[in-house]
Write a structure and sequence with these properties.
Number of helices: 16
Distance between the termini: 53 Å
Structural class: alpha+beta
Largest sheet: 8 strands, mixed
Helix content: 40-55%
Shape: globular
Number of strands: 8
């Protein structure tokens, strides 16, 4: 009998199988472009191919967990770690572990709980998925967190299981039984084809931009190309951490005391934590970059 897990699809194999489709569609796209638009689209594609990185935006607590554990943990691993600590501290009975993990996941994912669980359950090793974003510069997806963790290209190049999805998988795809995989797989790319996927996705933006702001087109608060892997993302693989200039200057103002004393204590604590994390990153010889959000 075939198990439920064996019936699940492998997102990395599907991404590899989509290579010919992406190449054909890209060649169709550039075939009829005038010379100026051709130069823009091919220049964009070449920029992606030569400079792309993976980035993950994290809130302060998640950055601290990453620094302490020396590896990035996905939402399932973080939740299980927190529950295990409760059990070790005598705050929770061991036989309540699974139900408590579910409650922690619900608390963390909030309105995205159902869609996240449903989507991940569609895939082989879905609970091992680590999500990131394609990034060619900038502060990443700041709504996910103020710290944009960027991984070394040479490390990412060695990952054997890495796939890209055209858009945020939670917002743009049907996760119910009617999910049309024949449509979905056309929005997948292996790492060798991600430049094709990006050029096809952003063709109109590229042409209208005249070469400006391409990093923001690729990855911003509203739109990004999602990356997924099941392999380890280690602290030793981090190339740099980007923080917005506004976030940094706000933190410095609090430290220097140039703020309204009536401002909530939580904001002061947050500012102090931002600076503490920056100091820890520097102690670990990780480059900190201060960038504009846009």
């Amino acid at each position: 009998m075939v198990s439920e897990e064996q019936m699940k699809r492998n997102i990395f194999s599907l991404a590899e199988q989509n290579s010919k489709y992406l190449s054909t569609e890209y060649n169709v796209l550039i075939k009829d472009l005038d010379s100026n638009d051709y130069d823009l689209v091919t220049g964009f594609r070449n920029l992606i191919r030569d400079t792309w990185k993976l980035s993950i935006n994290l809130e302060m607590k998640r950055v601290e967990q990453f620094l302490n554990s020396e590896k990035y943990m996905n939402i399932y691993e973080v939740s299980e770690r927190e529950v295990d600590e409760k059990i070790e501290n005598g705050e929770l009975a061991a036989n309540d572990k699974e139900s408590e993990i579910e409650q922690v996941l619900r608390s963390k994912l909030k309105t995205f709980y159902k869609s996240r669980i449903t989507y991940d359950s569609l895939w082989e090793d879905g609970k091992k998925f680590k999500y990131a974003a394609l990034n060619i510069g900038g502060a990443g997806i700041c709504r996910f967190g103020p710290f944009c963790i960027c991984f070394k290209k040479e490390y990412i190049d060695r990952l054997k299981m890495l796939a890209f999805v055209k858009m945020d998988s939670l917002k743009h795809y049907d996760h119910g039984e009617s999910n049309d995989f024949n449509v979905f797989i056309r929005d997948l790319a292996a790492k060798g084809d991600v430049s094709l996927l990006a050029a096809l996705k952003h063709q109109q933006d590229i042409i209208s931009s005249d070469g400006d702001g391409w990093h923001f087109i690729v990855c911003n608060n509203e739109d990004f190309i999602e990356a997924v892997t099941v392999e380890e993302l280690l602290i030793s693989a981090v190339e740099s951490v980007r923080v917005t200039k506004d976030q940094y200057w706000e933190a410095l103002e609090f430290k220097l005391g140039s703020f309204d004393e009536e401002i909530a204590f939580d904001r002061n604590l947050r500012a102090s934590s931002v600076l503490d994390i920056i100091d820890t990153l520097r102690e670990k010889k990780i480059t900190v970059e201060f960038v504009d959000e846009g």
